[in-house]
Design goal:
CATH topology of the largest domain: MetI-like fold
Number of helices: 16
Membrane topology: Multi-pass membrane protein
Keywords: Cell inner membrane, Cell membrane, Membrane, Transmembrane, Transmembrane helix, Transport
CATH architecture of the largest domain: Orthogonal Bundle
GO biological process, one term: microcin transport
Protein name: Microcin C transport system permease protein
Subcellular location: Cell inner membrane; Cell membrane
Distance between the termini: 12 Å
């Protein structure tokens, strides 16, 4: 197992390098760089993307000093100074190598437009992502696994039919649409105002007791967590049910029943461990997906300032240190989580040996 882990860790390096090369190369062909943004603001020309849509620029990655949108009315020396400030006076290859050298030291630089380090910026937005990722994943597992097992045991009964219908409806409803429904019903939209609609805590958070802070925290996160859980809940329930159904039909289950074991002993003593292999092993990937992927729309609807909104705003503003810094960090974490997922398989079922596959 040690040799397999070492091989996977070594593969992280070329994989991560490939991700960064592809994304950095694509950026070179995206018009409307940070210098365009600054020039548009200085000249009061509105959104820089209006000029791009009109075909007024052939800019590739913000390096052509003579073709900036709206740049014709500004001194050439001023534009060259902006290029030096942002590092666009250097060739793309040199900029990429410098960036990767800094990233290897986990130096992600400073946001161009917020004047704060990328690391501090991510840490500032982290509480929202931790809240949505952790609680959504835990609730999905705590509800879906018992429900999926119950559906497998009572397969074909009215209970299975009605719950399957409810699950399909829940899966068909987009998370943001369900969020709007929750706001309309319970956050003062048109009916009751039982829950707040802004932030993770109240303005008087510091004045509350410990118990009051806990209640206030859960009061604020109830609706956004429910909205972000609905789709994962549906998928995980059906996955659990189908996994248990496959195991129940196997010969060892029939043998265990023939020996006189009760239904409960067979289910939780023999079937559970095998059936839950695919479900539990996916926990790290599911958590990281919700945690880092975020939901821009849900964060916007509930006025939460998390990583979803950070990524969107950085992409729109062409804040490349934030874009590439978070891409590098999250890709690295994602690759490590994929290794942890494989290790989870081995922990749950020691019969699995990845080294034997060679």
């Amino acid at each position: 197992m040690g040799a397999y882990i070492l091989r996977r860790l070594l593969l992280v390096i070329p994989t991560l390098l490939g991700i960064m090369i592809v994304n950095f190369s694509l950026i070179q062909f995206v018009p409307g760089g940070p210098i365009d943004q600054i020039i548009a603001q200085l000249e009061g020309g509105g959104d820089v993307f209006e000029g791009i849509a009109g075909g007024g620029s052939e800019l590739t990655g913000g390096t052509e000093d003579s073709n900036y949108v709206g740049g014709q009315g500004l001194p050439k020396e001023f534009i060259e100074e902006l290029e030096r400030e942002f590092g666009f006076d250097k060739p793309p290859l040199e900029r990429f190598l410098t960036m990767m050298g800094n990233y290897l030291r986990f130096d992600f630089g400073e946001s161009w437009f917020r004047k704060i380090s990328v690391f501090d910026l991510v840490m500032e937005k982290m509480p929202v992502s931790i809240t949505l990722g952790l609680w959504s994943t835990l609730i999905a597992y705590l509800v879906s696994i018992p429900l999926g097992i119950r559906k497998a045991v009572r397969d074909g009964t009215p209970f299975d039919t009605w719950t399957s219908g409810a699950i399909i409806v829940g899966y068909a409803i987009p998370g943001f649409l369900f969020a709007i429904l929750l706001i309309v019903l319970f956050a003062g939209g048109s009916y009751w105002q039982w829950f707040p609609l802004r932030g993770l805590t109240s303005t008087n958070w510091e004045d509350l007791s410990l118990f009051g802070k806990i209640i206030d925290y859960f009061w604020h996160i109830t609706l956004p967590v429910l909205a972000s859980t609905i789709s994962a809940f549906a998928v995980l329930t059906l996955l659990t049910k189908n996994s248990f159904l496959d195991e129940i039909k196997k010969q060892y289950v029939i043998t265990a029943k023939a020996k006189g074991l009760s239904e409960r002993q067979v289910m939780f003593g023999h079937v559970f461990r095998n059936a839950m292999l695919i479900v539990i092993s996916g926990f790290p990937a599911l958590f990281i997906g919700v945690f880092f992927g975020g939901s821009l729309i849900i964060e916007t609807l509930f006025s939460l300032d998390g990583l979803g909104r950070l990524g969107f705003e950085a992409a729109v503003a062409r804040d490349y240190p934030v874009v590439f810094g978070t891409l590098f960090a999250f890709s690295l974490i994602g690759l490590i989580v994929s290794i942890l997922t494989d290790l989870t398989y081995v922990f749950i079922d020691p019969r699995i040996d990845f080294e034997a596959r060679g």
